[in-house]
Amino acid sequence: PVAFDWKDPLGASNLFTEEELAISETAESYCQERMLPRVLDAYRNEDYDRKILEEMGELGLLGATIEGYGCAGVSSVASGLITRAVERVDSGYRSGMSVQSSLIMGGIDEFGSQEQKDKFLPQLAKGKMLGCFGLTEPNHGSDPGSMETVAKPHPTKKGYFSLSGAKTWITNSPISDVMLVWAKLQETGKIRGFLVERSECPPGTLETPALKHKNGLRASLTGMIQLDECPVPEANMFPEIEGLRGPFSCLNGARYGIAWGTMGALEDCIARTRQYALERKQFKNNPIAKYQLVQKKLADATTDAAFGILAAVQVGRLKDEGKAAPEMISMIKRQNCDRALVNARILQEVFGGNAVSDEYHIGRHVANLFVTQTYEGQSDIHALILGRAITGLQAFC
Ligand code: TGC
Ligand code: FAD
């Protein structure tokens, strides 16, 4: 009989091409050898080493599905495998990469002018320039359509808009060189995308304070984008796209990545729990892995991880054939984030008191996975997106 592999229970690796397997191996080696040794300090100190994106850029791991501009032009499944490798280490590291690869590079690639693509993509691909994506506002999270950030013609600078408003909970904002800010054009009331370059903003028109003392995602930097009559050249506005379709199209790529990434985090929880349960002995010197209740926890988590990966592969393949509906992405984003969080939380129990020590890593994953369930559309919001697609009736308001 074929041997069962608990690390790949449903044989997903049979669905990957040689190239995808090679990319996965490169990403896994980098993440385990270079990222993992940094994560505990970063998490303890709420710090993010921006060199990480530069290193990933050198390996061709940023904006990996984009063709040209120094990007690798690989399949959506290959990009999913990269994301899974990064989040196996930490969701915060994956966040920093998602924002760079999917939200800003993906946005520029899909909606930018040729001039914008030539100017920003090669630098972002190398990780020499860092970017962020500003959609959420203090008063508008799940409902970004009600945003208050506004763009109007600049009163004194010809050929410039003046942007005013505040974005909050923005990954990478404190260290970003370029910010993709979504704002309503005063003239039409329509949402448009603007590339705000930090180096071009006069003093006092742009602030990006960090939001500190987070109890999750501490190895990622999060902040605000505060704009006060900030001049932005007309050439930095996405030329055609208007309305929420712009930001939501970027989110499709990032949400797809999270569906893969959270499975990496869950797989790390499974591997660590299995190892711990085999080593830890209680009652007549038995490893706790011998006890049925512990085995059930591992069986449940391993099943959810295996199903989650297969679903992500399926959506990735459809995505590359142009057959992936946004609701499919909502389904895997919601399901994989929810199952990763529930299982990680249950596996945490296997560590007993040691779960409280960050050196066992499981508590960090649990805290991070709460955030993944919340950003890029909280799970209940994705349930409503699915409910609307199933019934034809929208329940948001
Ligand atoms: P609704 O009427 O549904 O749609 C408005 C327009 O948008 C289009 N659209 C999409 N287009 C492409 N892909 C999608 N997934 C799309 N979803 C909607 C839609 O066709 C329509 O187009 P048009 O041309 O007819 O105008 O809009 P609504 O205002 O009713 O939206 C409701 C809802 C709940 C679906 C939406 O607001 C939502 O998804 N809310 C969640 C907000 C969210 O996801 N925010 C994410 C912020 S970014 C972030 O969290 C990054 S974290 C990064 C990290 O660190 O990893
Ligand atoms: P709210 O919208 O206030 O929702 C609160 C609760 O109410 C949720 O449970 C929600 O499901 C529920 N709810 C809301 N409306 C309904 C409804 N109609 N029916 C039923 N339930 C409802 N945003 C960016 O733009 N860029 C980023 O880079 C970014 N990075 C982030 C990083 C971190 C660490 C965090 C925590 C957030 C980040 N976000 C980012 C913001 C994130 O996308 C929002 O937090 C998320 O969309 C939810 O919005 P909110 O926090 O305002 O919650």
TrEMBL record:
It is found in: Mitochondrion matrix. GO terms for cellular component: mitochondrial inner membrane; mitochondrial matrix. GO terms for biological process: fatty acid beta-oxidation using acyl-CoA dehydrogenase; fatty-acyl-CoA biosynthetic process. Belongs to the acyl-CoA dehydrogenase family. Residues 17-128 form the Acyl-CoA dehydrogenase/oxidase N-terminal domain. It is an enzyme of class 1 (oxidoreductase). Pfam families: Acyl-CoA_dh_1 (PF00441), Acyl-CoA_dh_M (PF02770), Acyl-CoA_dh_N (PF02771). The keyword Metal-binding does not apply. This is glutaryl-CoA dehydrogenase (ETF). It comes from Aureobasidium subglaciale (strain EXF-2481). The keyword Mitochondrion applies. Residues 244-390 form the Acyl-CoA dehydrogenase/oxidase C-terminal domain. Residues 132-230 form the Acyl-CoA oxidase/dehydrogenase middle domain. Its cofactor is FAD. Keywords: FAD, Flavoprotein, Mitochondrion, Oxidoreductase, Transit peptide. InterPro entries: Acyl-CoA_Oxase/DH_mid-dom, Acyl-CoA_Oxase/DH_mid-dom_sf, AcylCo_DH-like_C, AcylCo_DH/oxidase_C, AcylCoA_DH/ox_N, AcylCoA_DH/ox_N_sf, AcylCoA_DH/oxidase_NM_dom_sf, Glutaryl-CoA_DH_mitochondrial. It catalyses: glutaryl-CoA + oxidized [electron-transfer flavoprotein] + 2 H(+) = (2E)-butenoyl-CoA + reduced [electron-transfer flavoprotein] + CO2. Pathway: Amino-acid metabolism; tryptophan metabolism; Amino-acid metabolism; lysine degradation. GO terms for molecular function: fatty-acyl-CoA binding; flavin adenine dinucleotide binding; glutaryl-CoA dehydrogenase activity. Its EC number is 1.3.8.6.
